[in-house]
Structure to design on (278 residues):
């Protein structure tokens, strides 16, 4: 059943195509150890917008029933609505292998400021989301912790410690997990910028680093750069790699982001920062 539905893994929105392979080469690595930590926590997300076609995104288990992803994976800006269902498959190995099975998400949340954003910068800063599962996946008991990195820790990452992005790009065989690691190029109070190679389907992938000797999620991969014809660099036939110096980027985990992920129903000054969309 899964394989047949996945024949229709196709992009829906333009904002899901702004990812790039940054030159001089495509350095992504196929990860086949999907039953081992931390790769067993990386999730392939299938989103059905009501037409019975699964459209891919990525995510990560950050708790027994919580899946971190990008807001634009859970809410289509073009359609102005969420998918009718989201299928979660941690540690998916290929088209046919789902080592831990699949679950349909019971709830989904995105920041209010993502949907109601008044600028592209505001929307980019709030492009993160959370899925809540009906029950835990058997066999997975360790999860990638979410950590709020300090400026000093991020400076250390710039100096040499790598960032890793792992997810399910649409330009590779259906259901295959790919990762790449590079140094952090720069950061702002709300964004992380890097030359890690990504393509459509990587949206929502965790951006993790080793801090204090342990892997931790410090960001959520969301966006990148397009060529002059509006295509993802290097991700489709007829495109070239992005010139060196161009950067992909993601949402930086801040104290506010971490608080919203811990409790998406929390209320601040009489209003919830997160909106339930599923």
């Amino acid at each position: 059943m899964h394989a047949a539905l996945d024949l229709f893994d196709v992009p829906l929105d333009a904002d899901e195509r702004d990812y790039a392979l940054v030159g001089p080469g495509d350095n992504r690595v196929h990860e086949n150890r999907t039953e081992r930590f931390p790769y067993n926590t990386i999730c392939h997300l299938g989103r059905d917008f009501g037409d019975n076609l699964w459209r891919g995104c990525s995510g990560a288990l950050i708790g027994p029933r919580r899946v971190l992803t990008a807001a634009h994976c859970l809410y289509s800006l073009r359609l102005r609505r969420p998918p009718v269902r989201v299928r979660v498959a941690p540690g998916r190995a290929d088209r046919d292998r789902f080592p831990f099975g699949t679950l349909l998400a019971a709830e989904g949340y995105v920041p209010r400021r993502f949907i109601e954003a008044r600028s592209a910068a505001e929307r980019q800063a709030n492009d993160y989301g959370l899925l809540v599962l009906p029950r835990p996946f058997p066999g997975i008991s360790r999860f990638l912790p979410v950590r709020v990195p300090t400026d000093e820790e991020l400076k250390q990452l710039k100096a040499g410690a790598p960032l890793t992005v792992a997810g399910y790009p649409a330009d590779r065989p259906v259901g295959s997990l790919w990762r790449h690691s590079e140094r952090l190029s720069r950061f702002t109070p709300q964004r992380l910028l890097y030359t890690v190679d990504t393509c459509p389907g990587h949206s929502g992938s965790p951006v993790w680093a080793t801090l204090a000797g342990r892997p931790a999620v410090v960001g959520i991969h969301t966006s990148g750069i397009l060529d002059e014809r509006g295509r993802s660099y290097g991700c489709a036939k007829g495109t070239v790699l992005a010139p060196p110096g161009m950067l992909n980027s993601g949402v930086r985990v801040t104290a506010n982001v971490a608080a919203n992920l811990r409790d998406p129903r929390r209320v601040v000054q009489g209003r919830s920062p997160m909106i339930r969309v599923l």
